[in-house]
Each structure stands twice: as C-alpha cells, then as structure tokens.
Design brief:
The complex is a heterodimer. Chain A is an all-alpha fold. Chain A has one domain: Orthogonal Bundle (ABC transporter involved in vitamin B12 uptake, BtuC), CATH 1.10.3470.10. Chain A has helices at 2-8, 16-23, 31-66, 78-91, 93-96, 103-127, 132-156, 159-170, 178-196, 199-205, 209-214, 219-241, 247-259, 264-288, 297-321. Chain B has helices at residues 48-55, 78-82, 100-105, 120-132, 148-161, 178-195, 206-212, 232-242; strands spanning 4-17, 20-28, 31-33, 37-42, 63-68, 71-72, 85-88, 166-170, 198-202, 215-220, 223-227, 248-250, 255-257. In chain B, the strands form three sheets. Chain B has a six-stranded mixed β-sheet, with helices on both faces. In chain B, strands 1, 2, 3, 5 and 6 form a five-stranded antiparallel β-sheet that branches. In chain B, helix 4 runs antiparallel to helix 5. The N and C termini of chain B lie far apart (39 Å). The model of chain B has no long low-confidence stretch (mean pLDDT 89). Classes of the chains: A mainly alpha, B alpha/beta.
Chain lengths: 322, 258
C-alpha cells in the first residue's frame, strides 16, 4: 500500500486508477502513464525498498556485532571510501587533469573502487586486532581521514565541481535502470542466504564475545560473514544511490522499540520490512514537500527520522520509569 | 579407578602484551575426575580467571596443553568444545533486550539447528535448570531489569542448560546474599552427585569451599597445588595464602576464623 502511494507521489499527477491499470498490466492503460511508471516511478519505488532493507539489515548486524548502539553500516569506512572515490572523480580534475568522464557509469564505479580500497585497508588493519571495539575506532578514524582529504579537494575545486559533488552526497533514489536493479536484487538475495548462517551467532553475541565463544561460536568466522555481507549490501547501495545517512543507524533502533525483542530470527526480517517502509515514506516526502522540486533524500531521512527515534526512546524510558 | 575427564600437561598460563608473553603460573599439572566438585582459591590477581579462561579456550596457553577425554582442546572445534565445557563468567553483559528465558535457552545453541529451534527435550532441560536455580518466577523479565544476584543465578541456569560434563564458574556467588550463596554451592554439589558433572568454582568463599568441595586447587605466587582440604600440604598452603593478623586457619574445625 505504501509502495503504491509512493508510486502515486511525483511531480506529475497520476490517478490511482491509472496506476492500478498499469501495475495489473491492463491493455487500456495510458501510454504516457505506463512509461512514467515503469521507467521512472516503479524503479524508484523498488530502489527505496531495496535500500531500506539493505541498510537496515547492515546496521542491525553491525550494532549487534560491535555491541554498540552507535554502530551503523558505514563504520567500516564504506561510505567514506565511496565519497573519496567520487570526490576524486569530480573534484580531482584540478589536480590530475580531467579524468575520462562517463557520467552515469563512472560515478558508481568510482564509488565502488573508493569503498573497496578504504574497506580493504580497514580490514587489513583490523585483521590482527582481537578487540572488536578497536576495529570500530579504526573505521571511524579512516572516516575522518577521508573527509579531511575531501575538504582539501573541495577547497581547491571550482563551484560547479563542488556543487556536483554535493548533489551526489545528497543521495538519489531515481538514477537506477532496470538492469542495475536486477544486480541490486541479486546482491540482496545472496546476502539473505548468508544471513541464515549468522542468526544464532548474532543471538549468542548478545551475551558478549566470551560467552558466545563458550557456546561454540567462532568469532573470526562470524566477523568474516558479517563484514562480507555488510560490504556487499552497503557497498552496492552506496555506489548506486549515494551515501544515505541515518537509515542504517536508526532503523534497528526503531524496530527494536516496536518489536521489544533482541531475537535475530525476528529482528532481521523485521528490520528489512521497517527499513523498506521508512525509505518509501521518506522518498514520498521528498516529492510532496515542494511540488515540482524534489528534496534531497538524505536530508529527509534525518529531518523526519531523528525526531521519531528521539520520541520513541523518550516514551520508552517513560514507560520503564513508571 | 576414577574417571579422568580433564587433564593438563605442564600448563603455563598468562597473557600476551605486544608479542611478549607474561606468565602468571607455570607447571600446572592436574587431573579432574567425573562427578567432582572443585574449588579454585587464590588471592586477587593470582590467575584464577586466567586459568578458567585458558581451560575454556578463551585464552591460549603459553605452553603445555589441556586434554578433555584424552583429546587436546586445540583440536576441538568451538562447537565440540561447547558440548564439553560451559562457563559462568564475571564480565558484564552488553545492553540488550533478552528475557531471562531467552538467555537461559541460549545454552541449547550447540545442540539446536541453524534457526535455533527448541524441541520438547530442550524445553525440559531449560525448565529443569530454572527450577534448580530458583529462576522460574523471573522467566519473562528482561535480564537488564534483574539485580546482580538474580542475574548470577540466571547465568548459572544458562550454563546448566548447556548440559556439559564440565562446568567452570568464575566467582559465581560474588553478588549473592548468604542464603543464595549457600544455596548455589548446595545446588552445584547436588548436580555433581546426581549427574556426574565436574564443577570447578573459583571463589573467595574459603569456608564454603572447604566444606563443600571434594578437592581444592590453589594458586599462589606462580605456584599451583591440588589436593583434599585435609591434606597437610594443602593446609600449609592455605595458611600461607590467607593467614594474617586478622584471619587464622583452624585445622580442627577445618575453617578460617576471622
């Protein structure tokens, strides 16, 4: 239902009846509407759902694995790596001469390369570290490091380049073609299979690393699976839609507050569903707010999401207090 | 002949700081028998927790080896080891919203399928453990709403649920009132007798240890001793470890007097 409402919202008004005609593939649907919906709105709706699922699940895994409520899908440096890659592509021109430029294709590529590079460095540094908290801090340090480089780049770049970079960093759900969507869907499907192997280890980790070990969990193996899935999910999402903030951090909290459980058998699918719903609502809001102009998705997720999380936390502690 | 379940060979325990290993206790050689209750005594920082963690493979020994049923624990997979040894630790549990029942049920993890589904047999074991530890009235509470003492009983129930031949407990009674302290020692003694489990408790409750344990393990100044509380060598060691102006060992009543 929210998905249909999401298709409904947009700069051109399409009546619900027509949307239904297109979706149920009735022959008398209008050509124009059909084109707008199948080539633009539907991909965007599916993108929102996939992004919500992927970031929500990654966030939950990282929070459980690091046993830190402030961990999110980007703690391993994926978003900072992607930003660095794109920043180098767009603004590095003034340093290295203009790079070969294929707009639609080169940005996801630069983002993937950047996040892969930074992720590899974080992983290699983290390999010999026993303490998982240190890995978290190393990830954050790499984040500061890359953002510093981006600051330097932006200082020396032209206004248009800067604007272009900032527009990318706002995130956009509407740039995906069907072929890219199929790729994203298959990545999420593969990750879902991986998730089946770590439901029990994640539950055991709720008691801390030593108890998990005593229950027969291999921390190293779990760490590898968690990191691979998170990198696949957030890496591909960031490459295609940009660094979507907040969702990965907030969705697990919202889900835990609604479902009152720590059980990952329930939480993992629940986080996926809630993530998808929240992304759809956020995307709809970007279109409603100011008629023809769409707002940046990254701003919406935080403007509407942050108060919701604060409200949920406050009302929860009130309930416990009374 | 007694049944040996666990054996150490020239075990040297300690920890590693920047690739340098620091030994806490060397030449540890002992055998644990089936159905035995043992207490591990020693001053703060003497290496009690280190020994227990090394036995549970959470720390690697500096030298020597540990065998369970004549199999070196280095060759056991984490899951196999989890069917031999259950632990109760002193460390605090990270923030979560697990209920008491869910926490205790986690003890069944080494036996359940990939989804962690509990069958009738598992549920029976869980309920039995809750009954023994007097935690069944807490079942639906969140573990973060419990007092320290209640939490300790829950963690003991969780270890019992793991249904292993060996249970290692690191100061399991430190937060308990005197009633539950004695109660826990009684329960553990009962479990040893009835189910032939081997229970090793590190504790500062010297008098309770002297009364309930079959044998004592002592660690003092890098030296390790094992024996019955009536053995001369154990009594001598106990005196050197704990005797001072304020506390004295009375060998006739087999207890420390404050």
């Amino acid at each position: 239902m929210i998905a249909i409402f999401n298709i409904y919202t947009g700069s051109i008004h399409i009546p619900f009846k027509e949307i239904w005609k297109v979706i149920s593939t009735q022959p008398n649907a209008s050509e124009n509407y059909h084109y707008i919906i199948t080539e633009y709105r539907l991909p965007k709706t599916i993108t929102s759902i996939l992004v919500g699922i992927g970031l929500g699940i990654s966030g939950l895994m990282m929070q459980t694995f690091f046993r830190n409520p402030l961990a999110g899908p980007f703690v391993l440096g994926i978003s900072s790596g992607a930003s660095l890659g794109v920043a180098l592509l767009i603004m590095g021109g003034s340093f290295f001469g203009s790079l070969p430029y294929l707009y639609n294709f080169s940005i996801p590529l630069a983002a993937s390369l950047g996040s892969f590079l930074v992720l590899s460095i974080v992983m290699i540094t983290a390999r010999n570290i026993r303490n998982t908290m240190s890995i978290l801090i190393i990830g954050l340090m790499f984040g500061s490091f890359t953002s510093a480089i981006i600051s330097v780049l932006s200082y020396f770049s032209s206004a248009t380049e800067l604007q272009q970079y900032i527009f990318w960093s706002f995130g956009s759900l509407s740039n995906l073609q069907w072929s890219e969507l199929y790729l994203l869907i298959s990545i999420i499907a593969v990750s879902a299979i991986g998730l089946l192997f770590i439901i029990k280890p994640l539950d055991a980790l709720l008691l801390g690393e030593n108890y998990a070990t005593s229950l027969g969990i291999s921390i190293k193996k779990t760490q590898s699976i968690v990191f691979i899935i998170t990198s696949l999910l957030t890496g591909s999402i960031t490459a295609f839609v940009g660094p979507i903030a907040f969702i990965g951090l907030a969705i697990p909290h919202i889900t835990k507050l609604i479902f009152h459980t720590s059980n990952h058998k329930v939480l993992l699918p629940a986080v996926g569903i809630i993530g998808a719903i929240v992304m759809l609502i956020c995307d709809s809001l970007t279109h409603i707010s100011i008629g023809a102009k769409t707002l940046p998705i990254n701003a919406i997720t935080s403007i509407f999401g942050a108060p919701v999380v604060i409200w949920l936390l406050v009302s929860k502690s009130k309930k416990l207090g009374s | 002949m007694k049944n040996v379940i666990l054996k150490t060979n020239n075990l040297n325990i300690g920890y590693t700081i920047s690739k340098k290993s620091v030994s806490i206790c060397k030449q540890i050689n002992f055998e644990l028998y089936k159905g035995e209750l043992l207490c591990l005594l020693g001053r703060n920082g003497s290496g009690k927790s280190t020994l227990l963690k090394t036995m549970a493979k959470m720390l690697t020994p500096i030298q020597g080896s540990i065998e369970i049923n004549e199999e070196n624990i280095e060759n056991l997979s984490p899951k196999e080891l989890a069917k031999f040894i259950a632990v109760v630790l002193t460390e605090s549990i990270p923030e979560n919203s697990l209920t008491v029942y869910e926490t205790i049920a986690l003890g069944r993890q080494p036996y359940t399928n990939w989804l962690g589904k509990l069958f009738d047999k598992d549920i029976n074991i869980i309920q039995n453990a809750m009954l023994l530890t007097d935690t069944n009235n807490l079942a639906n509470k969140l573990i973060h709403q419990l007092s320290d003492g209640q939490l300790q009983r829950v963690m003991i129930a969780r270890a019992l649920t793991q249904d292993t031949p060996i249970i290692l407990l690191d100061e399991p009674t430190s937060h308990l009132d005197i009633h539950h302290k004695i109660n826990i020692f009684k329960i553990l003694a009962k479990i040893c007798k009835e189910t032939q489990k081997t229970v090793l408790i590190s504790t500062h409750e010297i008098n309770l240890a002297l009364k309930t344990s079959d044998r004592l393990l002592l660690i003092d100044q890098e030296k390790f001793k094992i024996g019955k509380s009536t053995d001369n060598i154990i009594q001598e060691n106990l005196m050197t470890i704990f005797n001072s102006d304020d506390i004295r060992y009375d060998s006739t009543s087999n207890q420390f007097i404050f």
